[in-house]
Write a structure and sequence with these properties.
The complex is a heterodimer. Chain A contains 13 helices and no strands. By secondary structure, chain A is an all-alpha fold. Chain A has 2 domains: 72 residues, no CATH class; 213 residues, Orthogonal Bundle (MetI-like fold), CATH 1.10.3720. The longest helix of chain B is centred in the C-terminal third of the chain and has 38 residues. Chain B has a single domain, classed as MetI-like (MetI-like fold). The chains are: A mainly alpha, B mainly alpha.
Chain lengths: 314, 301
């Protein structure tokens, strides 16, 4: 196992190098002068020159890259142009709301998807099943921002049960904080729930048609013991894969969700940085997100081999 | 999963994961019947969307940009079927014009990705060795970014406007097609008839055109048809965030964003374009599924 991990880590090195090069070049894709783009409103030529020197944009490209990589290796991701603080400080301040949102959304999705998928598979081809499959289809085709606005319209504007935007930390504000996260977590969670429901349902159906299910029933196990003791465990493997495959979509969904509900998380930080043309901040945050994404994909890959010994990574 | 750009990569893992389990045949037949019923609906939606997009100037009852400050936030009624927005523009007319943006975004970005990915995949598969390594690591690098985040960054850097979004989405979807094409090339390359063609003196280019492309066309078309719906969702998400077609021009995503401040007084500003977007994406999904089943039953899950 250790060797597998080591080899997978080794394989990510060239990809990481390309990712950093891509993020570095991002700034240079701007049509025209990036400094003009960043300081569009300012006519101050001296300020532009000093920013150009600070970012090293007056040097040749390869020198810039070497300097940038040198700082990166030392853990220096640069500074935001807008607030002058290091990128890492900007990010760490925004980490908690995003993690809370992710955790709650994950709980919502499992709470919705598991009962629905199990009911759909067990009561295959009944009304329950049709509700399950329709939900899955709608969830997959429904854009995140539209679902968010539907929920806001229903529970925030019409029924007035829940706050429609803003964020209070549940760890500090308790109940009020949790309430502020209900709609965002539901938005993000339902989207994931749709995918999980669809996958789990079809893998349950496949598992249910296996011979060992007949054996388990024949030896007198109750239907519950068959489903929860045998079938569910075997049907979980594709779910892990699909959740892994959906990670990127999930991060994108979190960006939109944080934007709609004005949650001060990483996703909101990306959008704000993009529209403020705070390119060093954009570069830093995107690099961090990409690295996080690569690491979680690696973990899913390894988890996969661990869950199902039949499919070990070669 | 919606609202953002769907994960397109890591397809290999999904393939490894699928086990050759015994299929419930009745279930398969039922599903096919259900899809057969849904496919005409999907086709009708797609056709309607294309007609609406082409005939937008004829169909739209009002100028989509004409403001009427004396008639803002008007309820849906006989004069304005979908009501008016916060500056008195006709929502229906804007939804109709927005159809153009959505369809162009969906089809053009996928076309960019299919061509770019196809060429890169063929290059990688044919050349092998170092070129293969470089191209595929490059594709891995693109896949290392969450799609929406990458598109957002690219779109922002390329500048606001539809072109930037089209290129950004094209880049995001390219690796899927590159991997697909490379796999096809690798499998076709080892066939006997290719050896035969080579022995007869056929050039690499000739083999590519006569053997590899026809074989690879089916999976590429299937992937493309499934990607269009997601690309439309992605464009709507980006224009919801403020990239893409710039105001006052109408696109579904930006209309929804503009309307979200008026959910209480005028929910129709959001729900008009929202319904159009949702129905289009559902319809395109049905069409994509039908094309997949029709062209290649092996790809059915």
């Amino acid at each position: 196992m250790a060797e597998v991990v080591f080899r997978r880590l080794l394989a990510t090195i060239p990809v990481l190098l390309l990712v950093t090069a891509g993020v570095f070049l991002l700034l240079h894709l701007t049509p025209g002068d990036p400094i003009d783009a960043m300081m569009a409103e300012s006519g101050d030529a001296a300020a532009k020159e000093s920013l150009r020197r600070e970012l090293g944009l007056d040097r040749p490209l390869h020198v810039q890259y070497a300097l940038w990589m040198g700082r990166l290796v030392r853990g220096d991701l640069g500074r935001s142009i807008r607030n002058g603080e290091p990128v890492l400080d900007n990010v760490s301040r925004r980490l908690r709301p995003s993690l809370e949102l992710a955790l709650l959304a994950m709980s919502v999705s499992l709470l919705v998807a598991f009962p629905l998928a199990i009911a759909s598979a067990v009561r295959h081809n009944t009304t329950v099943d049709r509700v399950g499959t329709t939900f899955a289809l709608f969830g997959i085709c429904m854009p995140n921002f539209l679902l968010a606005l539907l929920l806001i319209f229903l529970f925030g504007v019409t029924l007035r049960w829940l706050p429609i935007s803003g964020y209070l930390d549940p760890l500090e504000e308790g109940w009020a904080g949790l309430r502020s996260l209900v709609l965002p977590a539901t938005t993000l969670g339902l989207a994931l729930a749709a995918v999980v429901t669809r996958t789990l349902r079809s893998s349950l159906l496949e598992a249910l048609s296996e011979d060992w299910v007949r054996t388990a029933r024949a030896k007198g196990l109750s239907e519950g013991a068959v489903i929860y003791g045998h079938v569910l465990k075997n049907a979980l493997i594709p779910v892990v894969t699909v959740v892994g495959l959906q990670l990127g979509t999930l991060i994108g969904g979190a960006v939109i969700t944080e934007y709609v509900f004005a949650l001060p998380g990483i996703g909101r930080l990306v959008v704000d940085a993009v529209f403020a043309r705070d390119y060093p901040l954009v570069q830093g945050v995107i690099l961090l997100i990409a690295v996080g994404f690569i690491i979680s994909n690696l973990l899913v890959d390894l988890l996969y081999g661990w869950i199902d010994p039949r499919i070990r990574l070669r | 999963m919606a609202g953002s750009i769907p994960e397109s990569g890591f397809a290999e893992r999904a393939l490894v994961a699928r086990e050759p389990a015994v299929r419930d045949r009745r279930w398969d037949a039922l599903r096919r019947a259900a899809r057969a019923r849904l496919a005409p609906f999907g086709a009708a939606v797609l056709l309607a969307a294309i007609v609406v997009a082409l005939a937008a100037p004829l169909l739209a009852p009002y100028d989509p940009l004409a403001q009427n400050l004396g008639n803002i936030l008007a309820r849906p009624g006989r004069a304005h079927w979908l009501g008016t927005d916060n500056v008195g523009r006709d929502v229906l007319s804007r939804v109709i014009w927005g159809t153009r943006v959505s369809l162009v975004a969906g089809f053009v970005s996928v076309a960019i990705a299919a061509v770019a990915g196809g060429v890169l995949g063929m290059l990688a598969g044919y050349a092998g060795g170092r070129a293969d390594g470089v191209v595929m690591r490059l594709m891995d690098a693109v896949l290392s970014f969450p799609p929406l985040v990458l598109a957002l960054a690219l779109g922002a850097v390329l500048g606001a406007g539809l072109t930037g979004v089209l290129i950004a989405l094209g880049v995001v979807y390219t690796p899927t097609f590159a991997r697909l094409m490379r796999g096809q090339v690798l499998s076709v390359k080892t066939r006997d008839y290719v050896d035969a063609a080579r022995a007869l003196g056929a050039s690499g280019w000739w083999i590519a055109r006569h053997h590899v492309l026809p074989n690879a066309a089916t999976p590429i078309v299937v992937q493309a048809s499934l990607s269009v719906a997601f690309a439309i969702l992605a464009e709507a998400s980006l224009s919801f965030l403020g990239l893409g077609v710039q105001p006052p021009a109408a696109s579904w995503g930006s209309m929804i964003n503009a309307g979200r401040g008026y959910l209480q007084q005028a929910p129709w500003i959001v729900f008009g374009p929202g319904a159009a977007l949702f129905v289009t994406v559902v319809g395109l999904n049905f069409v994509g599924d039908a094309i997949r089943d029709g062209l290649d039953p092996r790809l059915t899950r």
